[in-house]
Fold this sequence. Notes:
By secondary structure, this protein is an all-alpha fold.
Amino acid sequence: MFFNSLTFAVFLPIVFLLYWFVFSKTKTAQNAFLVVVSYYFYSCWDWRFLFLLLFSTLLCYFTGIKIEKSIGERERKFWFWLSIIFNLGFLAIFKYYNFFAFSFSEALNNIGLQTSPLLLNVILPVGISFYTFHGLSYVIDIYYKRIQSEKNVVDYALFVSYFPLLVAGPIERATHLLPQVKRIRSFDFEKAKEGIYQIIWGLVKKVVIADTCATYANAIFDNYTSMNSLSLILGAVYFAFQIYGDFSGYSDMALGMSKLFGLDLLRNFNYPYFSRDIAEFWRRWHISLSSWFRDYLYIPLGGSRGSKLMQVRNVFIIFVVSGFWHGANWTFLAWGFINALYFLPSLLLGTNRNNMETAELHWDFNSIKVFFSILATFTLSCLAWIFFRAKSIHIAFDYIKNIFTNGSFASQFLQNQRYSPGMLLLIIAFVLVEWNCRYKIEPISGKYSWLKITLCILTIITLGTYADYKEFIYFQF
Length: 477
């Protein structure tokens, strides 16, 4: 059940009405209802996945209590590592086993030892990386005594399985979401209105920007050997806006519908393509994942303390692990490694905490520098996205090589519903709207909101893509 489907358009209002008119009397009723709804929502992909979700939930729930009640450090470590090993073990089996088995077999074949890998014929459970990280952060926080264990199993189950964030985040923290879950919510009209604005803008990003860009990006990447330099550059740009519109659009919808139920989720995107360097980009892109790796991996490794060599090591570890989190493919590892290389100059020069404020442009010399810094950062991101999108590292390098060798810059016709110049105008309009509203959560709220909603709905109806590409990219992670 996708957020951009007609089925969900029927599902959400029904859940909203039942939540406020039938189950709003007590916190227990609200939470129990949302848990049931979330499990039904998840079962719409494959009901068998529910058992894995339930096991992960109960594992972290019980081990969290055991860690807190343990008398000695040895016992605390036992329950802590039991939870960590089982959670990461299931993630490794379902997501990474076939990758490692095939890579190991291929390495043996390359040295003359012919082997056939034993592969598992399993489906990757949707959202497993997200709800596993919810549980891991919860258990880690209990172990380090940052929070107390949750005794109410329904409240904890809602924290893990809450349907707006279940399959593609944002990756929530118990310190942020559990306190909200544990109190009764009252209907707030202003918050609900903000939620509707954010849902509508998320739909614009998804069905108008992301899904339309996908038609071009897919056509170019699938036929890159016959494309000239201009088309290949456009393919990288289209994919950059596809993945941004797709993932940030999902996050906007998740945050928006949560406001309908009186809950606030962590912000996941903050206009990342207006970043002036890679360090700023990673403070604005997939914020919940970046901050998760910062708090639970980078800082425990030593963070920015210690020698420069140790700092460089820590940066490469978190970026490569972040790439591997996205998928079991060498392309994701390469994407993470490339971003680590991008980040390295900021780390070595001590400029990684520059550009903390939102970018501004004025009619002065400094604005020229800001503009070209934004353009350079976006260009570097597009080059890295080629590895993220390509099916293999060889194809990614070949794609980049063709950009510089297939020298023609003539316009090439693609067999799509729309012609390329129209798509470029749509992207330019989208960028201008986001730039003008970069201090806001979404562009619709504020003055003339009724007119903005009308224009967005008309844009969705007239320019939205519905035939294909309904699935969100990050569902596969």
